Automatic annotation (TrEMBL), chain A:
The gene is atpE. This is ATP synthase subunit c. One of its GO terms (cellular component) is plasma membrane. The keyword GTP-binding does not apply. Key component of the F(0) channel; it plays a direct role in translocation across the membrane. A homomeric c-ring of between 10-14 subunits forms the central stalk rotor element with the F(1) delta and epsilon subunits. The record marks 69 as: Reversibly protonated during proton transport. Keywords: ATP synthesis, Cell membrane, CF(0), Hydrogen ion transport, Ion transport, Lipid-binding, Membrane, Transmembrane, Transmembrane helix, Transport. The lineage of its organism: Bacteria, Bacillati, Actinomycetota, Actinomycetes, Pseudonocardiales. It comes from Saccharopolyspora hordei. Residues 21-81 form the V-ATPase proteolipid subunit C-like domain.
UniProtKB/TrEMBL annotation, chain B:
Keywords: Membrane, Transmembrane, Transmembrane helix. It comes from the Bacteria. The chain crosses the membrane at residues 28-47, 53-72, 84-105, 117-136. This is ATP synthase protein I. It comes from Saccharopolyspora hordei.
Length: 85, 148
């Protein structure tokens, strides 16, 4: 009897990997989003205090933006691999 | 603080940001191409034609993502930091949404080898970011740029 129940459960089981991968990607995108916001908030602060340094602050901010964004792209690649059926 | 209506040619801050963007593009593009080629060769040797297609598509997606950041940098060079923040966050959200859709659609294509695409894209993005950091270290941006 239990074998029949187990067989029925196995048939009913579906692949939840794509859903879990999407949730993981969503969680992984939160951190870089916060990071990008903090970077530009710092640039706005810095430029308000010292407008002459705007060019250098923006340069630093863009390179930080690139590095933070790489984290989100790594999450995207992991999602892509993990979502395989 | 610079005015958003100031022409880019007259704005020294815009010029310094665009000079950095150009240096980043110049420094990163060839290492990126080499990475895609290496990824394509390795994937072809290990998997075959589907690996080659996967690696090339992965390289194209990585290039598109990285070039969009450079374009955003040039586009917002002369803007006030408030608008640059909006553009950067909007670019980040837009890029992540588009890439999510693109990668989900690519996952259903049988002719592309999944791991080849993923690892080539990852390697290209990492090499590109590393090259951009090198370009940033090499580019001398003056700390203080007088308004006039």
């Amino acid at each position: 009897m239990s074998n029949i129940v187990l067989a029925q459960a196995a048939e009913a089981a579906t692949n939840i990997n794509p859903g879990l991968a999407a949730i993981g990607y969503g969680l992984g995108a939160i951190g870089p989003g916060v990071g990008v916001g903090l970077i530009w908030a710092a640039v706005i602060n810095g430029t308000a205090r010292q407008p002459e340094a705007q060019g250098q602050l923006q340069g630093i901010a863009w390179i930080s933006f690139v590095l933070v964004e790489v984290l989100a792209l790594i999450g995207l690649v992991v999602y892509f691999i993990a979502s395989a059926g | 603080m610079s005015d958003t209506t100031t022409p880019a040619s007259e704005n020294p801050h815009a010029a310094s940001v665009r000079r950095l963007a150009s240096a980043m593009l110049r420094t990163a593009i060839w290492p990126g191409v080499v990475t895609v080629v290496v990824g394509a060769v390795v994937a072809t040797a290990l998997v075959g034609a589907s690996g080659l297609f996967g690696a090339l598509v992965g390289g194209v997606v990585a290039f598109g993502s990285s070039l969009l950041t450079i374009w955003l940098m040039r586009f917002t060079g002369g803007m006030s930091p408030h608008f640059v923040m909006v553009a950067a966050l909007g670019g980040y959200v837009g890029k992540m949404l588009v890439l999510l859709v693109v990668m989900t659609l690519l996952g259903g294509v049988e002719a592309l080898h999944r791991e080849s695409l993923a690892f080539t894209m990852l390697a290209t993005v990492l090499v590109w970011a590393g090259a951009e950091v090198v370009a940033f270290k090499r580019t001398r941006t003056p700390t203080i740029i007088p308004e006039n």
